[in-house]
Design brief:
Helices cover 32% and strands 25% of the residues. With 516 residues, the chain is an alpha/beta fold. Helix 5 packs across helix 11. It is globular and about 75 Å long.
């Protein structure tokens, strides 16, 4: 769907905080998009951005193979903000000098503002110092012609630079991170002061424009929606239904990889509390057969994804005149499934990883540009109840990616029983809504234990609980020891075949939230 918004364009040079830049801009109710630094000038012109942000990145502009964007972007007549690597690249491309710093800057630094305007409008110059976050091994040593320093730190004489006439600015610190206490001020000054954007990116406006776009795309045709019961698919279904009403039929597929009671509760909710037409398909035996003997996580995801597509197409054929499949692809799905920098794809998502190429149905992905918290806000705007909106995320491939190794009915039974205990205790303790996600993982190993007077050699369950905002980054949840102990004791005592529980204390990055 081609929905036009006033936008800021972010060129990604590989920074781990590029997505944070996007989030901070959207928090100001201004739409933005992330694209690879290799984006062509013609494509940039088509996107018609109000401003361009060049992100940070792990490379050095001094390297022979440093990533470089088209220098013609400075001729487009739009404001440009370079952040860290982006500022150094701007400096180099416009004739300044960047060198390896004698003393690198990583972490907190004190910023002195030299020019009270532009990025620093409303902030004080002189003796007042502001805490910012630095993360660079190179530094700007000489400004390009017609540029000047607008701030400095103890180790960066050009901590921020500005063109005296053109709307080009750069900062060597990261305004997008929370440790930069004036980060919001800096980004707001760029977005509103330099780019003249309007704060009109709201879920109310998103509903209006997207509904019209869906109606225009679909016309008189029929649409099916892949309904899993999760937040993303539920909001997708509600949004498409708002646009085309009974032209939409939702299909719920029980792939045999759902949690205990999940299928029954999902179907009951949608049939009793919504106006959606829902068809349910029990394909549990089909999926288990497809996954028999498969241990590679990518192969699991792809087989599950292809299985869904096959079933959707079969159901569409029964309905007749179905042209579109609506699904709840989110922005993080797209970012993780598409490599911007020639690096390895992190993982295939069942609703992103190339599957449309084999489908006979065209895709409608109305949430493709949204982060998870925006989707929840959208769901409330559409009138969905909180019980549907604030469920913890559950992956499309279900428990299939929470069982390491081969998926069998017996192993699914073990994981389901453990998962019930995790969710029960998280809810009764009040932590279910406090964390982003909490679940059990069945590992492909067995360990020695002692139960009573007997030696056991049984399965290991890993407990994964994380705090996050949009799933792009996450930290492990600091749960109380008594809660962890209670969950562990219950799993070992109540789930036959488990004699050990471990707690995953890995953050994302470098780990992912799901184990596969």
């Amino acid at each position: 769907m081609n929905i036009q918004h006033e936008k800021i364009l972010i060129l990604d040079f590989g920074s781990q905080t590029t997505q944070l830049i996007a989030r901070r801009i959207r928090e100001q109710k201004v739409y933005c998009e992330i694209h690879p630094y290799t984006l062509s000038l013609d494509r940039i012109r088509e996107l018609a951005p109000m401003g361009i942000v060049m992100s940070g990145g792990p490379a050095s502009v001094c390297d022979d193979d440093a990533p470089v964007s088209d220098p013609g972007l400075y001729q487009l007549g739009v404001p440009v903000l370079g952040i860290c690597y982006g500022a150094q690249l701007m400096t180099q491309q416009l004739g300044g000098r960047v060198e390896q710093a004698k003393k690198r800057e990583f972490g907190k630094a004190d910023l002195e503002i030299l020019f009270r305007g532009g990025l620093f409008a409303g902030l004080e110059t002189g003796a007042r110092r502001y805490q910012v976050w630095m993360s660079h091994g190179d530094r700007i040593e000489e400004c390009p012609a017609d540029f000047e320093a607008s701030s400095q730190s103890d180790h960066s004489p050009f901590a921020a630079i500005r063109h005296k006439k053109e709307p080009f600015v750069g900062v060597q610190f990261h305004p997008e991170v929370a440790h930069t206490l004036i980060g919001t001020d800096v980004l707001r000054n760029f977005i509103f002061g330099m780019c003249n954007c309007k704060p009109n990116w709201t879920m109310h406006s998103f509903v209006s424009t997207t509904v019209l776009a869906i109606r225009k795309m679909v016309g008189e045709d029929k649409v099916i929606c892949a309904l899993s019961g999760g937040v993303d698919s539920s909001v997708t279904a509600a949004l498409v239904h708002r646009a085309i009403g009974d032209q939409l039929t939702c299909i719920y597929v029980n792939n045999g990889l759902m949690r205990t009671g999940e299928t029954e509760s999902i179907l009951q909710f949608f049939r009793e509390k919504t106006r959606l037409k829902v068809i349910d398909v029990d394909a549990s035996e089909y999926f288990l057969k497809e996954l028999e003997g498969i241990v590679d996580p990518e192969e699991k995801r792809k087989r599950i994804g292809y299985g869904f597509i096959n079933i959707f197409e079969q159901e569409a054929a029964k309905l007749g005149n179905v042209k579109y499949l609506a699904q709840g692809t989110l922005y993080p799905d797209v970012i993780e499934s598409v490599s911007f920098r020639g690096a390895a794809v992190i993982k295939s998502h069942h609703n992103v990883g190339g599957l449309p190429e084999v489908m006979k149905l065209d895709l409608i992905e109305p949430l493709r540009d949204l982060f998870k918290d925006e989707v929840r806000e959208l769901g409330l705007e559409l009138g969905l109840p909180e019980e549907a909106i604030y469920r913890q995320p559950f992956p499309g491939p279900g428990l299939g990616i929470r069982i390491m190794g081969e998926i069998t009915a017996e192993r699914l039974d073990v994981l389901r029983k453990a998962d019930v205990i995790v969710l029960e205790d998280m809810k009764t303790s009040g932590y279910y809504r406090k964390v982003w996600q909490s679940f059990a993982v069945l590992l492909p190993i067995q360990t020695v234990g002692v139960m009573g007077d007997e030696r056991t050699y049984e399965n290991v369950i890993a407990l994964r609980c994380v705090d996050s905002v949009d799933a792009m980054t996450a930290d492990w949840s600091k749960l109380p020891y008594d809660l962890l102990g209670r969950i562990s004791n219950r799993i070992i005592n109540e789930v036959r075949g488990v004699n050990r529980v471990v707690f995953d204390i890995s953050s994302k990055p470098p780990s992912t939230i799901e184990w596969e």
